[in-house]
Each structure stands twice: as structure tokens, then as C-alpha cells.
Amino acid sequence: MNDPGSLSLAYSIADQNFVQTKSLGILNLSLQLGVALSSRPELARLELFSNSSLRGWREQFAGRNVHCFDHASATRLGRMFWDQYGVYRAANKHAVQWLFLPKGFASFCRRPRISLAAYVHDAIGEWYRSQYPGAQSQMESWYFHRSLMATLRYSTVVFTNSDFTRRELVAFSERHAIPPPDIVVAGIGFDTVAATTSADRRRIVVLTSPWRHKRTDLAVQYMSDWQRASEFSGQVDWVGRFPAGVGRPSHPHWQFHERLDEDGYRALVSESRAVIYISEYEGFGMPPVEAIFHGACPVYSDIPATRETMRGEGAPFENASFESFTAAMTRALAMQPSDLSGIAERLRARHNWTAVADRIIAALTAHPRGRH
Fold it and tell me: How confident is the model over 185-196, as pLDDT tens digits?
């Protein structure tokens, strides 16, 4: 085992930025996890591979070395070259023990020369291949499939956000006859926020997405039916893009925000009484937890990942039942600030960055010589 303060690690967020990311959740997690690791004394040296669009985060990385690679996120081709060759070349140049990939996709063109750690958020690509074949471009599906195989084949340790994702990766490894690496459930942490306790919140936030698994179509159907039945007079804010073929519903108290930055989204949720989150598949399900921390009750799909993450807190419902959704909405709107603050304490005890960093450091020190 390595002595405290002897680890050296390169952490790459160079290929991520706010404008081009397909997942704000992964971007925010990558940034916050980097901050959590940068403060750890066990890491004698941390080389952060970043880009100029993320320079506002630089001062949060505890004085660590930050290197700018703008070409890694400039174009799709640039990101692919960075994934396959550039990030490995940079890590080798800085002579670190570990390369950490917070997006979870390793190169399938090049074998790592140093120990590789990856944070895998889900196996959504494989789920799409079985549930919605043809929904993704063949090239994109092939690329991420090959990358996930490389991650499991070449990583010394893989971290996941939930035990559900860990099980998904074990099953994937078995299907493809890949001896799995050490797969550790690291979890996800959340920034500590002080939720406002006003009982006058009269807004509801509904999260939408162009991705089919997010079931924006079901959100439109259920919210339209619920609005007519409940005669709710507050404002409903729809946040996110709509998928092709699903039109924006019309209602005098409904507003639409195609994209909000993190501060804008948090401000909106902090004025809301409930956050609606409908999905068929998640690796973790961050929005319901975030809603609680901002004083809003989440109304969310009861699926394996959210069941593990939330343990029934808030207002879960069954996707196939409008009656279940209606009951969840009634529960959410009746939730008192004291109820939500108690839930927040329980969630914060389970999902915090100190515990996540502890698990990651423990796993890295347990593999001083890597896998290969």
C-alpha cells in the first residue's frame, strides 16, 4: 500500500464544457469530484487537465497544477482524438501513477502505460441498444460500446455512482467475457446548501430532455391531465429541450427554459414546491436529491437507481400509473419544510463528497502497482 501523500494522479476534464455537453449532471459531477480530490493530502501531486471554458473553477482546485487543452473540447473530432490518444500522452508526459477519467470512457485504440481509473455513470448505451435499437446513430453507439469495453478491460479500478450501475457493469463484463476490474461504488456527493423555508412557494419545475428514456412525452401527458384535474394556479417551469415529435403544451401559467446554467437552475428550484423527474433508466438520479437540498419535494419515477438513491424519500411514483403520479403530486404539495429538512439530513449523511473521496483514495492506495 502507498504511504499517505505518495499518490500522483492526472484528472481529465479537458473534453468537457457547458456549451457542448450532453449531460450537465456528468459535467457538474466531474468538476465537483475534482474539487473534492484536489483537497486530499493523500494526493502528493494532482495534475488537472482542463480547458479555458472551465477557468472559473481553477481557484477551487486547492492550488493544484492546471493544464489547459482547448483542442480536447473544440470539436467532435478533437474530443475523439483526446479520448483515444491525447489524454494518455499528456498523462505519460507528467509521469503520474494514475490517470483518472471522470466520464468513464477509455481509449480502445491505445493501451494505458500507467494505472487507469474511471468513473462510469451508467450503462445507458447498452440499455438503448436493447430497448430502443436505432434511436442512437450507429457510429455513436459503436464508439461508446467499444469505449466501455476498453474501460472494463484496461482499468485497474472502476468507480460507480450506485450499486445498480455496478451490477450493470458486472453483467456487461460477463456478456462480453471480460474479466472485470475492481468495481467500487464510490457514490455521489452534493454541495451543501441552505434551503429557503418559505411556505409560499407556488412553482413547480418539470425536467425535460430530448433523450427517449427521460419520457418527456409522459411528463406532458401526466402534467396536462393533472393540471386540468387539480386546477393548480401556480407557475409551472419546464426546464430542458423537448424530443422530436413532442410539442410544447400550451397553458397560461407554463413557462419554458430550454437551458439553464447551474446557478439559474438552483435559483429556480429554490423557489419551487416540487420538481418532476420522469425517467425509465438512470445510473443514480441526481435531480431528486438536489431538489430536496433546495427545499423542493421531488416527484420521481420509482426505478431501480432512484429506489437505491432515495430509499422512498420524497414522492416516488410508478411510471405506468397516472393514479400513482397524482398521489405523488398530492404528497409533494402537502410536504412541510420540516419534513424536507429531515429528509435532507438523511440524504446528506449518505451522499457527501468527503465519503466519496474516502472511497476513491482507499481504492487507489489498495492498487499501488495497477492492474497490468
Answer: 999 999 876 655
Q: Dig out the grid coordinates for 41 from the structure.
A: 493530502
**Under 8 Å CB-to-CB from 357, ≥6 apart: which residues?**
33, 36, 37, 39, 40, 189
Measured in degrees and rounded to the nearest 5, phi and psi for residue 153 equal -80, -35
Which position has the grid cell 409533494?
332
* Residue found under cell 384535474: 229
- Separation CA 301–CA 304 (nearest Å): 9
Average pLDDT over residues 245-260: 91
Q: 370 versus 277: which is more confidently predicted?
A: 277
Q: Residue 163 CA to chain centroid, in angstroms? A: 15
Dump the DSSP string for 46-87: EEEEE-GGGGGGGGGSTT-EEEE-THHHHSHHHHHHIIIIIH
Decide: 42 and 361 in contact? Cβ < 8 Å: yes
Whether pLDDT at 122 is above 80: yes
> CA-to-CA distance for 28 and 60, rounded, in angstroms?
13
Cα radius of gyration rounded to whole Å, the chain: 21
Cell numbers found for residue 297: 419535494
Please give the Cα distance from 334 to 229 (Å, whole number).
17
- Greater confidence (232 vs 161) lies with 161
DSSP 313-371: -SEEE-TT-HHHHHHHHHHHHH--HHHHHHHHHHHHHHS-HHHHHHHHHHHHHT-TT--
> In this structure, are residues 356 and 37 in contact, taking their beta carbons and an 8 Å threshold?
no
Sheet holding 182-185, edge to edge: 65-68, 43-50, 7-12, 98-101, 115-120, 157-160, 182-185
Mean pLDDT of the chain: 92
pTM beyond 0.90: the answer is: yes
CA distance 165 to 213: 16
Q: How far is CA 28 from the centre of its chain?
A: 7
State pLDDT tens for residues 169-187. 999 999 999 999 999 999 9
Distance between CA atoms of 113 and 73, rounded to whole angstroms? 24
% of the chain at pLDDT higher than 70: 94
Q: What pLDDT, on a 0 to 100 scale, did the predictor assign at position 1?
A: 42
* Domains located in the chain, CATH noted: 7-189+352-365 (3.40.50.2000), 203-350 (3.40.50.2000)
